[in-house]
Amino acid sequence: MAMDAHQIERLIREALPDATVEIRDLAGDGDHYAAVVVSESFRGKTRVAQHKLVYDALKGRMGGELHALALQTSAPQ
Amino acid sequence: MTDAHQTIDNAVKSNDVMLFMKGTKQFPQCGFSGQVVQILDYLGVDYTTMNVLEDDGIRNGIKAYSNWPTIPQLYVKGEFIGGCDIIREMFQAGELQSHMTANGISMRDTAA
């Protein structure tokens, strides 16, 4: 089961309303994405904690329905 | 405590650098696992791997153990460090190298 980019973006925005979300479909197969997420909620958190916030936003789909999401997170400059 | 949990816990606690991956060092079976192997090999770190594809109990158990949904997963001195993206970002920023040094993990002398 693949997910489309809009669905991923919507889920992330629901959990992190201030986030800037940029998603690229890496392979054109609806299964391998790269996401850049910038949000104030990442400030002061470790990378593991930042990625965890995004995974939590995806409500269990990561690693299952969504096989591959190359993730890059940061707080606004 | 399940057998899988026990096996994972033992591996994490008895190996300074422990990588749970798909495939083996010699033959990674997923690009993400392969990238982490390349980084660790480049740094010249001694590390142990466990192939999650050989055991569904481990494959699912490791996700519960770390509360992290994806594989590979790297542990240093019993602490979960991250998956492929985090390891790559840390490596590129020089943070992985300093994390290894801070934890007393020796690396082959790579060009500074």
From TrEMBL, chain A:
Instruction: From the record, give the transmembrane residue ranges.
Output: none
Q: Name one Pfam family in it.
A: BolA
Stretches assigned to coiled coil: none
Record-stated family: Belongs to the BolA/IbaG family.
Protein name (database record): BolA family transcriptional regulator
| InterPro entries, A to Z | BolA, BolA-like_sf, BolA/IbaG_stress_morph_reg
> Which PANTHER family did the record assign?
BOLA TRANSCRIPTION REGULATOR, BOLA-LIKE PROTEIN 1
UniProtKB/TrEMBL annotation, chain B:
Binding residues for [2Fe-2S] cluster: C30
Q: Which GO terms describe its molecular function?
A: 2 iron, 2 sulfur cluster binding; disulfide oxidoreductase activity; metal ion binding
Q: Which domain of life is it from?
A: Bacteria
Q: Pinpoint the Glutaredoxin domain residues.
A: 17-81
Alphabetic keyword roster: 2Fe-2S, Iron, Iron-sulfur, Metal-binding, Redox-active center
Answer yes or no on keyword ATP-binding.
Answer: no
Q: Which family does it belong to?
A: Belongs to the glutaredoxin family. Monothiol subfamily.
Q: Which NCBIfam families match?
A: Grx4 family monothiol glutaredoxin (TIGR00365)
Which named protein is this? Glutaredoxin
